[in-house]
Design a protein that fits this description.
Blueprint lengths: L4 E5 L6 H10 L7 E6 L4 H12 L2 E8 L2 E7 L2
Length: 75
């Protein structure tokens, strides 16, 4: 999946992946995709809930060893 921007949130603990995601997605236009890489296991539930509440869409989620990867479309 082609992302407009990639955010490296690896090594950050809650709530920093959400804080950085919010800042990064605000720089994108509607329909553009932000790819997030995180290592905090809580990010899986946190990012899904945050995206839904903010009108964004989690397009894809996968785990690559210890790295959680998310593709979120700006709402």
């Amino acid at each position: 999946m082609e992302a407009t921007k990639v955010l490296d949130a690896k090594g950050l603990a809650c709530p920093m992946p959400i804080v950085k995601t919010k800042k990064a997605i605000n720089d994108l236009a509607s329909g553009e995709i932000l790819e997030i890489h995180a290592t905090d296991k809580g990010a899986k539930n946190d990012l899904a809930a945050w995206a839904k509440s903010g009108g964004h869409e989690v397009m894809k989620h996968e785990e690559d060893r210890d790295v959680l990867k998310f593709w979120i479309k700006q709402g």
